[in-house]
Write a structure and sequence with these properties.
By secondary structure, this protein is mainly α. It has one domain. It is 75% helix and 3% strand. The chain has nine helices and two strands. Strands 1-2 form a two-stranded antiparallel ribbon. It is globular and about 50 Å long.
Length: 258
């Protein structure tokens, strides 16, 4: 009986309010942590991307090899995607010279390709469908592209629209509020809404992270990137300790969930 119960559970957490709180904290940590390595340590975007990509590969390999849901391991992989996404987006936007619009367009195309391949291969892109290592690979590949796209969108909104970091954060927070309203009061696909929210939390975290550590004359609070990253790490750990999460249950999906 226990083995049947374990097989009915996924290795990703149940999507609750706690999930989204930790996700926003993780994306903010990704921004401050990524900037700490590339800017404060002066290692540059390419080296920073290589470091965080290596960490991501190690962490996601452990996650895929695991037999059940481990909250600390799962969120370690998420943080790895946010830090790698931060440095990769900055490298694409700035070092490659294609700008925010070019970087965001490229990453959006990669994200759509990832979702399309996942759906073509598995028949669903819902978190309830993750029942094999192959599905997990698609899941984490999609998350990596969504985190990187979110970083590019956050920088684009804050730097080119004149809204600044506070204004950008409010725009993305409003987008999340609209997605939440659609979840409760419409019949729009739950899977579509999940991925929309997942993408929007990244630029929200990116703009909040930039607001915390950018200089005062750039509209930020001029906090140390190391201090901001430490505070966010402690907050995430506190959430994991005091707000324990359960694994997402696998179930047969309706059309709205596919």
């Amino acid at each position: 009986m226990n083995s049947i119960a374990e097989r009915s559970l996924s290795k990703v957490p149940e999507v609750t309010l706690v999930f989204w709180i930790i996700k926003i904290a993780a994306t903010t940590l990704g921004e401050t942590g990524g900037d700490a390595v590339t800017m404060s340590m002066n290692l540059g975007y390419l080296v920073g991307t290589a470091i965080f990509a290596a960490i991501f590969v190690v962490a996601v390999s452990g996650q895929i090899a695991a037999k059940r849901f481990h909250p600390y391991l799962y969120w370690a992989v998420i943080v790895a995607t946010t830090t790698a996404g931060t440095t990769l987006a900055d490298f694409a936007d700035r070092s490659l010279g294609i700008g925010y619009a070019g970087g965001a367009s490229l990453l959006f195309g990669l994200l759509m390709a990832s979702l399309g391949l996942w759906y073509w291969s598995q028949g669903s892109v819902s978190v309830n469908s993750i029942a094999s290592p192959k599905a997990e690979v698609f899941y984490w590949m999609t998350i990596m592209f969504s985190q990187t796209l979110g970083t590019a969108l956050g920088d684009w909104m804050a730097d080119t629209t004149g809204l600044g970091y506070e204004g950008g954060a409010l725009v993305f927070a409003a987008g999340l509020a609209i997605v939440a309203a659609a979840y409760y009061w419409t019949a729009i696909s739950r899977t579509l809404l999940f991925w929309a929210a997942f993408i929007l939390t990244r630029p929200l975290g990116a703009t909040v992270g930039d607001f915390l550590d950018k200089p005062l004359d750039h509209g930020g609070l001029a906090m140390s990137r190391y201090s901001a990253s430490a505070v966010l790490t402690v907050f995430m750990l506190a959430c994991l300790v005091f707000l324990p999460q359960r694994a997402e249950k696998r179930r047969h999906m309706t059309i709205n969930e596919r």
